[in-house]
Design goal:
4 copies of one chain form a homotetramer. Chain A is α+β, with helices and mostly antiparallel strands. Chain A has helices at residues 22-39, 44-51, 128-135; strands spanning 3-8, 53-54, 57-64, 73-84, 87-96, 104-114, 116-117. Helices cover 25% and strands 37% of the residues of chain A. Chain A has a 5-stranded antiparallel sheet. The longest helix of chain A has 18 residues, at 22-39.
């Protein structure tokens, strides 16, 4: 069962169309990734400082299926997948949750991450704890 | 006891100095205001549509007391105060919470709101449910 | 020759990694789209109000090729392509510009837009001026 | 005559009220500060790295006088004032510019900055080039 992150849509997530601005969906997915790492004992802020590597995003893609308005409740599921010794993908499903009835998909997204040395920017194998989290995904 | 909103600092809240960008503190305070309203049964998204008024911010001020980094936990306290028939202020204390020991103030902020007709932009008395929330603050 | 939008990277575009947050690349691409429309006499704010349609983004994808730091200069090229009677794509190339030497690609991105009635959310043909801009792309 | 920064309001600056979100006014003022520094030969990204100091914002205040919508043109004037050996203030006037007629003030804001060592966070005198820029303000 994938990690799930619950969130309310805030006013600052929205734009003049009255709904969440498309790029904010990706920022919200990144929050879910941070929470999933923290829940696994790998806090973003310190883990990468300690290991000397970073895992920047090389690609992203998203399909926006339903508009989201201020005050609405969402749940973001995160599923990691190993791509290679030094890369992985995250698949996100962003559900619009409902107090009465079935949740509905508001978006799906995917980010691809490559592990590099923070100093030289050369590719490096995923650190063991991160690899373990990805492989358990 | 003031309403309190718990929040984790996200990567997208930070800037290249490694800490939360100053304007984001105010956006986070606004999240706490939205949550306080929702907890009082006055959801921002529908309440103002239904009443035909809006309560835009006329002034803001903030003192930034401590830097906040990605992954840190905060708690935002919100206290409303009536200013006049058609205006109120919100005082925010943003606490950096600690698992071991005393919380510390990371910022204090204040916003002042004026109630106006959304169509004519003329001043209007606070709707009764909003006035009740402010006066109970 | 595609429309080009020049921009400096701001501090608020960056995150604690010291570079532009990945979702901000897409927000910057959207700025270029707004400027391209305005240059064609189709300002986003009024055009859609006047025509009763909106063109929300159904899909986005991006490849992040180079990090961008605060103060760096970029140029975003926008090329529209017709997909159907009621949809189009925008291809973006985000160049990191250099005062001495060749510009380098910092990212490529694509957004797909579907034209719908703002009230019923049913698909509608692109308004003629928008169709003309897309078809000239 | 104060430094002036010209800017168009983008869609991502706005919120569901259809106008610029209040905290974004301060982010836009910070852009003007960055541009003013760059114009004076003090680029934010490298200047502070080179001098070992930072000048974080200790306080901010703003009065929001007029709403701003997507596509509108603004001009932000920046005036620095020395407060002490190790601190200064920036006063911002955000003008809504008009092609036909007088510009109107959309907001005024002020930020106060304290110069500290980036390592120890102890107060330090402003570096000479920054002091010169402030004192010429």
């Amino acid at each position: 069962m994938p990690f799930a992150y619950a969130r309310t849509i805030h006013f600052s997530d929205t734009d003049a169309a009255g709904i969440v601005f498309f790029a904010r969906y990706l920022a919200i997915c990144h929050e879910a990734y941070e929470e999933a790492l923290a829940a696994a004992g790998l806090p973003l802020a310190t883990f990468f400082t300690d290991t000397g590597v970073i895992v920047p995003i090389g690609k992203s893609e998203a399909s926006y299926l339903r508009p989201l308005a201020c005050g609405e409740k969402i749940r973001v599921e995160v599923t990691p997948t190993r791509l290679s010794e030094n890369s992985f993908a995250l698949d996100f499903v962003l559900w619009k949750t409902s107090s009465s009835g079935a949740d509905k998909r508001a978006a799906v997204a995917r980010t691809e991450h490559v592990c590099i040395c923070s100093r030289t920017r050369e590719r490096r194998a995923l650190p063991a704890p991160l690899a373990a989290w990805v492989d358990a995904g």
